[in-house]
Specification:
The structure holds two protein chains of two kinds. Chain A starts with a strand and ends with a strand. Chain A folds into two domains: about 5-225, P-loop containing nucleotide triphosphate hydrolases (Rossmann fold); about 240-355, Nucleic acid-binding proteins (OB fold (Dihydrolipoamide Acetyltransferase, E2P)). In chain A, about 20% of the residues lie in helices and about 35% in strands. By secondary structure, chain A is α+β, with helices and mostly antiparallel strands. Chain A has helices at about 40-50, 90-100, 110-120, 135-150, 165-185, 195-200, 220-225, 230-235; strands at about 5-15, 15-25, 30-35, 55-60, 65, 75-80, 155-160, 185-190, 205-210, 210-215, 235-245, 250-255, 260-265, 275-280, 285-290, 300-310, 315-320, 325-330, 340-345, 350-355. In chain A, about 40% of the residues are buried. Chain A is globular. By secondary structure, chain B is mostly helical. Classes of the chains: A alpha+beta, B mainly alpha. Chain B: It is found in: Cell membrane. Chain B: It is a multi-pass membrane protein. Chain B: InterPro entries: Bact_Polyamine_Transport, MetI-like, MetI-like_sf.
Chain lengths: ~350, ~270
């Protein structure tokens, strides 16, 4: 178990810069997710930590030791791929035992350790089968067993759940987190799926176009996005142009639809001066209602334009004045029909402010 | 409509049959006549006998030719397969400058008529003032069996995911251990197929061999060719039958082995 440090890392492929100068500190034992759309550089970062790519500039430290010149097979890492990458010509037990052969593990210990790993991923009885005989979810569990049996310093997971179907993915998510907590290994998880990132991580690193947009705990990244990109990428957000006024540490935004919105200082950490700003309103914090607003809640009249029914929740597009807004509400009874006049309720403390 | 349709199909079937007969009847005749008891290597059959096979086995020239052919074929297969696997690895797994050109050059011997290749190599050796020898004959065979090995091995190598090798390395296997533990076993069916191709092609090649062989060295095909110039002996029919058995039987055997290997690994 070790910490991982990226120091001023740059990765260029020819003239294309995949990762702009960035630094990252992954504490020992943490579960850190690199989150972003495809092409944002998250996999490039992972592959540099793994030693499958060399950084163009900067240095990588694992457990405080510089590993730039250490080849992958000497880094003691567990690597799990999206497509499992099991050895098709070896049995499950041989797959799991593979890494042990290159470590000083007495051969009499190998079967026991393989069995422990298989028990840990809850597939104790498949040792003598070939990977092809297992389902996708089972193959991924074996790949995980193979990666953790060697007691790696760092566990690297490259979109390990993306090839699985939806239900299985959620089961595996819980399972993966359980195993990680149990063995306590430092884990770097790469995904483009925001719900995986929010559910599993101690820390999320949101990336876009080779740059780190924000680093923070799931709640922090979700509730106080550091940029428009983060606000859009994690869940649906309405981002509205506003003017910002400061008075004695309190931040107040003036926006044409919602009027004056006082923002808690914790939700506006990047506001340093008065002037243009952005009001961030999460779609699920905007509540459609026909009743009057309680004390301290902003209420704005609007008309329902589009209804996107999703079972337990519904997504509305509403028109308020000349602004179109998005709202995601739980369904209480029946969803509102198109054309219904409603009131939009918004609690100011649910909003966040970004510099314009 | 339906009647004319079925007549049409009947004609197609008959025509197909004729084409196959045209292709395989001569081969069948050779095999059949090799068991003929008669002095003359032609119809009518006068009785069933293994006599010509026995004579074949006692003919020193033919036995020597067989030995030459088998040694030549095995060496060709060994060298071609080794070079082919290395070349495929370089072309598929590494970024080699000019890899397209190299790939084309390696495949080119298939596209060039063999006579042209044969004469070219001969002229080149003449120019370098190197005498013909068994080594040069071997060299020639390697040149025109190499493309087959490369084509087969490359196709297989492309289908082996890089992920699998990367997984092996992350687990602690050095690049060399990864090759012998993972890559080579996974491409084994293609390596065997390539080796078999190389052997059979070398074994029944005559054009290039006629140009390149040093005096006094005969392979089975050139030996048959030489014997035909004197007379059509029934021994040739027997020899032909043996050749057919080897060149058809070996690939079938190889295929069976490859299939067995791949069912074992489940790929």
């Amino acid at each position: 178990m070790s910490s991982v440090t990226l120091n001023n890392i740059v990765k260029r492929f020819g003239t294309f810069t995949a990762v702009h100068r960035s630094s990252l500190e992954i504490p020992e034992g943490a579960f850190v997710t690199l989150l972003g759309p495809s092409g944002c550089g998250k996999t490039t970062n992972l592959r540099m930590i793994a030693g499958l790519l060399d950084p163009t500039e900067g240095e990588i430290l694992i457990g405080g030791r510089r590993v730039n010149d250490v080849p992958i097979h000497k880094r003691n890492l567990g690597l799990v791929f999206q497509n499992y990458a099991l050895f098709p010509h070896k049995t499950v037990a041989e797959n799991v035992a593979f890494g042990l052969k290159y470590r000083n593990v007495p051969s009499s210990d190998i079967p026991r350790r393989v069995q422990e790993a298989l028990d840990l991923v809850q597939l104790p009885n498949v040792g003598d089968r070939y990977p092809k005989a297992l389902s996708g979810g089972q193959q991924q569990r074996i790949a995980l067993a193979r990666a953790i049996v060697i007691e790696p310093d760092v566990l690297l997971l490259d979109e390990p759940l993306s090839a699985l179907d939806a239900n299985l993915r959620e089961d595996m998510r819980v399972e993966l987190k359980r195993i990680q907590e149990r063995i306590g290994v430092t884990t770097v998880f790469v995904t483009h799926d925001q719900s995986e990132a929010l559910a599993m991580s101690d820390q999320i690193v949101v990336m876009s176009e080779g740059r780190v947009e924000q680093v923070g705990a799931p709640e922090e990244v979700y509730n106080t996005p550091a940029s428009e990109f983060v606000a859009h990428f994690l869940g649906a957000s309405n981002i509205l142009a506003a003017r910002c006024a400061l008075s004695g540490g309190a931040v107040t935004l003036h926006e044409k639809t919602f009027g004056t919105v006082p923002i808690p200082a914790a939700k506006a950490p990047r506001i340093t001066s008065e002037g243009p700003a952005k009001l961030v309103v999460r779609a699920e914090k905007l509540v459609l209602s026909t009743s009057p607003a309680p004390e301290g809640v902003i209420s704005v009249p609007a008309t329902v334009q589009t209804v996107d029914y999703q079972g337990q929740s519904v997504r509305y597009f509403v028109q308020a004045g000349d602004t179109q807004l998005q709202a995601i509400n739980m369904i209480d009874g029946h969803p509102f029909a198109v054309g219904t006049k409603v009131n939009l309720h918004l609690r100011p403390q649910d909003c966040a402010a970004l510099p314009g | 409509m339906r009647e004319s349709g079925s007549l049409g199909w009947a004609l197609v079937r008959a025509w197909t049959l004729l084409v196959y007969m045209f292709m395989f009847l001569p081969v069948a005749v050779v095999v059949l006549l090799s068991f003929n008891a008669s002095q003359f290597g032609s119809f009518p059959m006068t009785g069933f006998s293994f006599r010509w096979f026995v004579e074949l086995a006692q003919n020193d020239a033919i036995l020597r030719a067989f030995r030459t052919s088998i040694v030549l074929g095995l060496l060709t297969a060994a060298i071609s397969t080794t070079l082919g696997v290395l070349a495929s690895l370089a072309l598929v797994r590494y970024r080699v400058p000019g890899s397209n050109l190299i790939s084309t050059l390696l495949i080119a011997p298939i596209l060039v008529p063999e006579v042209v290749l044969a004469v070219a190599l001969l002229l080149f050796l003449n120019f370098l003032q190197i005498n013909k020898s068994f080594t040069l004959l071997l060299l020639g065979h390697v040149i025109f069996t190499l493309p087959f090995v490369i084509l087969v091995v490359q196709a297989r190598l492309v289908s082996i995911k890089r992920d699998v090798e990367e997984a092996a390395m992350s687990l602690g296997a050095s690049p060399r251990q990864t090759f012998f533990q993972i890559t080579l076993p996974l491409m084994m069916p293609a390596v065997l197929a390539g080796a078999l191709f190389a052997f059979t092609i070398s074994f029944d090649d005559i054009t290039g061999t006629l140009f390149w062989k040093p005096g006094g060295v005969e392979t089975v095909p050139t030996q048959i060719f030489a014997m035909l110039r004197n007379s059509i002996s029934p021994e040739i029919n027997a020899l032909g039958t043996v050749m057919i058995l080897m060149t058809v039987g070996l690939p079938l055997l190889g295929l069976a082995i490859a299939r067995k290997l791949s069912t074992k690994s489940g790929t």
